[in-house]
């Protein structure tokens, strides 16, 4: 699969399911105290008022939560349907359409990057390029927060909520992701692994790394 293929597949999937997805996951952050603790730690590391990008922001719930923690954050997503929801629910925040593989940002523009389950559709051989782009837009000393489901086998979602679309959700191992991030020039800060919550079926990981 080429870069264009998986980007198109991801955009098509989320354009189709956006409203159902947003309704289904309304209270995701409120119901997960350990995730909120990770966000709080990340915000403390980045610093009040510092510029942050929430990449793959979907309906903007994480973007809004990061803003509530004092970060100067904007959201970016492939899906215009998701962005329409994000703008509707968060009129005071900025949301842009784009690909996190090719960010329209100058080098070193950000103090923080968040990829909250947004790298899970990126094939493993594309991850080095993705992480290099994250590093490019971070200023020295900037932090990246990366979350994903733990596992070795992908989960394929077919016809969600009756929509005729299919997409693979790729699971990763924290050790491998840490190695890829180190190879991309990041220094490890923290690794959080938690057990499944409510309707989740796998353990979840959140890595925080820093651009030296």
UniProtKB/TrEMBL annotation:
<dbReference type="GO" id="GO:0008168">
    <property type="term" value="F:methyltransferase activity"/>
</dbReference>
<dbReference type="InterPro" id="IPR029063">
    <property type="entry name" value="SAM-dependent_MTases_sf"/>
</dbReference>
<feature type="domain" description="Methyltransferase">
    <location>
        <begin position="52"/>
        <end position="142"/>
    </location>
</feature>
<dbReference type="InterPro" id="IPR050508">
    <property type="entry name" value="Methyltransf_Superfamily"/>
</dbReference>
<keyword id="KW-0489">Methyltransferase</keyword>
<dbReference type="GO" id="GO:0032259">
    <property type="term" value="P:methylation"/>
</dbReference>
<dbReference type="Pfam" id="PF13649">
    <property type="entry name" value="Methyltransf_25"/>
</dbReference>
<keyword id="KW-0808">Transferase</keyword>
<protein>
    <submittedName>
        <fullName>Class I SAM-dependent methyltransferase</fullName>
    </submittedName>
</protein>
<dbReference type="InterPro" id="IPR041698">
    <property type="entry name" value="Methyltransf_25"/>
</dbReference>
